[in-house]
Specification:
The protein has two domains: 66 residues, lambda repressor-like DNA-binding domains (434 Repressor (Amino-terminal Domain), Orthogonal Bundle), CATH 1.10.260; 35 residues. Helix content is 77%, strand content 0%. The chain contains five helices and no strands. The N and C termini lie far apart (62 Å).
Length: 102
């Protein structure tokens, strides 16, 4: 992959990540790299390896299209619902621990 092609792929990846409201940490986990390494690739401090490029291209093929209008709202709603559900579960577990000791 040429430097220009690598730059285009990384830009497309970052655009898709931001449109979907995904953190660098979450996307790095999906790509099986650390957040720090992901950040360095995005900033151009380290090159995009062949293996990571394959994973990035596969992720973009599945998730890389633009999100607009209702699709974006539906995606954001699902993200918020997932986050709220996780926080509610954590709150329940903490409450059980605290109330159970009372």
């Amino acid at each position: 992959m040429t430097v220009a092609a690598t730059t285009d792929v990384v830009r497309a990846l970052e655009r898709a990540r931001r449109q979907r409201g995904i953190s660098q940490t979450t996307l790095a986990d999906m790509l099986d790299v650390t957040q720090g390494h992901y950040s360095k690739v995005v900033r151009g401090l380290v090159p995009l390896s062949g293996k990571m490029a394959e994973r990035v291209e596969a992720w973009l093929a599945e998730h890389g299209g633009p999100i607009e209008g209702d699709d974006a709202a539906a995606l954001r709603l699902r993200q918020l619902a997932t986050s709220i559900r996780a926080q509610c579960m954590e709150l329940m577990h903490l409450s059980e621990r605290v109330i159970g000791k009372a």
